[in-house]
Specification:
Two copies of one chain form a homodimer. By secondary structure, chain A is α/β, with parallel strands linked by helices. The first copy, chain A, has two domains: 60-355, Radical SAM ThiC family, central domain (TIM Barrel); 360-420, no CATH class. Chain A has 19 helices and ten strands. Chain A has helices at residues 3-8, 14-23, 27-36, 76-88, 103-113, 122-129, 138-151, 164-173, 182-194, 199-202, 204-214, 235-253, 268-281, 302-316, 335-355, 360-371, 375-381, 385-394, 412-420, and strands spanning 39-40, 55-56, 62-67, 93-96, 118-120, 155-158, 217-220, 258-262, 287-290, 320-322. In chain A, the strands form two sheets. Chain A has an eight-stranded parallel beta barrel with strand order 3-4-5-6-7-8-9-10, surrounded by seven helices. A two-stranded antiparallel ribbon of chain A has the order 1-2. Chain A is globular and about 80 Å long. Chains A and B meet through helix 6, helix 8, helix 9, helix 14 and helix 15 of A and helix 6, helix 8, helix 9, helix 14 and helix 15 of B.
Chain lengths: 424, 424
């Protein structure tokens, strides 16, 4: 029986218990949120040995890292390594977005290499298999989804909201950058070429049938997301969100867990509104944002741009942050870029969590270690201990090892400690 | 006659005109905001050839970069280079915080090397001159301020709000990390040791006399700023802010331009409130924030933490962002760290400005360049062209040079362009 069906019946599962324990929450809360569709625990029934994660329902904000090959760079080992690096630095989930080389092999190797929930975008394989996106058949799409589910993938992005109506909305309204979603563009090209409705929308019940077989979580992709600030929060984006909100309800009715994907490129003053809207329209479904990126002019630093947007989104209620690496908009990331992206997204998630009352004990511990000038403890508590040690070693104190080389003996903490104990 | 006095009389100066032109605003607006003390143009009458900057009054958010020696690392050339690097990557102002080696030489060389407004913290020199912070005299402090002004420094941080009353507030309330402001700790140590009131507070009128001689802008330092999330927005911090608000009024009455400094370490949900409070209590005085840093656990990545806090602060109305480098809390930064800090702060400032209706044309241009797959134009528009070029070259396209290696021939923009022009 599906997780959600059990939750609705008031049945506590091992997965719910593991999530409740990891988060320090009552298991009844996890069960209730899952039953309502406000929390998902992506876990394919075929996947073994997975460190389950709860996404949504007021839990700690989760971070996803995308890895995967491209037509230019398709080294299986490298992509597996990226997945491992992502998990090492704290990614809660990994998505394999491969579109080059032996896609089956990469996915299967990643599923074995990491213990966190793994997601994919099966339409990529359906499209690349034929060489041209329009040559794939509707069956190719569903077969790819089934194959990925069969392999144990825990969640899949499916661009069900990219409908003919949405394309018409785009034609009427216009946009600066029409589509920037890879999967979204595949679906649009396919619909236009074949003159047919999106199979993922038209045959959504069939998709739910497949999802039910594996307890596959559906991440409803935002194929119409804005690709630049100028297109943010436009009718095209919200047309798709409205469609998705109906699909969320249909999935819930059949006990299929769903996540809703969101932008993308948004000015900082649009972020909170976008989160609130998703939460209202999709009745609390977990919100999975890509960034968001509140400026378009910083290629090379989009992990920082994404951290700004992600912190604000998560503080406003987004549940799941898709990282952005420094090479976004420029090239396929390396393992080092994956690390930078994961750390930046984790900082954003933690910044938001602290404001939501989660995890501030770590910050308090760090402040104590700073008060005591206890460097070993500071390194232990640092989000990236190796980096902290490396930087301090770059310019070590030569005069007084208890302080750092920013202030040396004029360390405010040391001076304060010496004088504040005295009477003024 | 002082800038502010002229502004009050309705007299437009060359500096006001330069600021108005740089910002695309009516000069009357600049004059009016300056007259009201909501905007400053830091420029010492002795400084020649300075590229004036307006800070506050709804203008573009400005970024400051701190450079300067420490007892461990005191290389004059290196600090001058850091100032140059900071300006090269877009810092609007530079502060020399030197506390080691030949402090006079570093300051004078920086004043010659860069054309942007330069700030200092004269009490550092007063304290380090005697070797111990408590051995300096009240005269040492004022003499250092005069010396810096004499050299042409455009603005100085003065910790006038660190009073005996503030220290008593701290003793009553307690804190996890008492003081983390270097200058603040000097003043506190001095007051406790001598059993006297802070000379910068007690003799504030004398300080104004000096400032008036040079049209020196006073940046009222927040010596009691919280040093960790746990101490944020506490009575100690606001006690100082209340004192500072009175000093702002006294300075305005004597035509001395003032900036108010703010935290520091703040949870993300405190940031907007802190900005609004400063703006209300200090009647719109330009707000200069240090970060702020919404988490304490990311040493090595505090430029990213500062970018999150800075973007939110500036979007809420903060006018001036002090950058944070990756080595904050670990060691004195290198030139490379200065670059990383400046870029991160500029991203934060721009993200906020866009939400305030300033500078979005650049983002629109970037989106157009992306639509056209015009890589040269994308590099030109990038906040750091060199980095963007370098990353793209790291993994260049091998199959189709018009796209990037993230998607290759499955580029959403390319596919969309091909199919969207067709009828569905």
């Amino acid at each position: 029986m599906l997780q959600m069906a059990k939750a609705k019946r008031g049945e506590v599962t091992e997965e719910m218990r593991a999530v409740a324990q990891a988060e320090g929450r009552p298991v009844e809360q996890v069960m209730k949120e899952l039953a309502a569709g406000r929390l998902v625990i992506p876990k394919n029934v075929r996947r073994e040995e997975v460190e389950v994660k709860g996404i949504g329902g007021g839990l700690r904000t989760k971070v996803n890292a995308n890895v995967g090959s491209s037509p230019d760079y398709a080294d299986v080992d490298e992509e597996v390594k990226k997945a491992e690096v992502a998990v090492k630095y704290g990614a809660d989930t990994v998505m394999d977005l491969s579109i080059g080389g032996d896609i089956d092999e990469i996915r299967r190797r990643i599923l074995k290499a990491v213990k966190v929930p793994v997601g994919t975008v099966p339409i990529y394989q359906a499209a690349t298999k034929r060489g041209s996106v329009v040559d794939m058949s509707s069956d190719d799409i569903f077969n790819a989804i089934r194959k990925h589910a069969e392999d144990g993938v825990d969640f899949v992005t499916v661009h069900c909201g990219v409908t003919r109506e949405a394309v018409e909305t785009l034609r009427r309204n216009g946009r600066l950058l029409d589509f920037v979603s890879r999967g979204g563009s595949f679906v649009v090209a396919w619909m236009i070429h074949h003159g047919e409705e999106n199979p993922l929308y038209r045959e959504f019940d069939y998709l739910l049938d497949i999802a039910r077989e594996y307890d596959l979580t559906l991440s409803l992709g935002d194929g119409m997301r804005p690709g630049c600030l100028a297109d943010a929060s436009d009718p095209v984006q919200f047309q798709e969100l409205l469609t998705i909100s109906e699909l969320v309800e249909r999935a819930r009715a059949r006990d299929v867990q769903t996540i809703v994907e969101g932008p993308g490129h948004l000015p900082i003053d649009h972020i909170e509104a976008n989160v609130k809207l998703e939460k209202t329209i999709c009745k609390g479904a977990p919100f999975y944002v890509l960034g968001p990126l509140p400026t378009d002019i910083a290629p090379g630093y989009d992990h920082i741009v994404g951290a700004i947007g992600g912190a604000l989104a998560a503080a406003a209620g987004a549940d799941f942050l898709c990282y952005v690496t420094p090479t976004e908009h420029l090239c396929l990331p390396s393992s080092e870029d994956v690390k930078e992206g994961v750390i930046a997204a984790r900082i954003a998630a933690h910044v938001a969590d602290v404001a939501r009352g989660i995890g501030v004990d770590k910050d308090i511990e760090m402040a104590r270690a700073r008060r005591e000038l206890d460097w070993e403890r500071q390194f232990e508590l640092a989000i990236d201990s190796e980096r902290a040690v490396e930087l301090r070693r770059k310019r070590p104190p030569t005069l007084d090892p208890s302080v750092c080389t920013m202030c040396g003996k004029y360390c405010a903490i040391k001076i304060t400690r010496e004088y504040l104990s005295k009477k003024s």
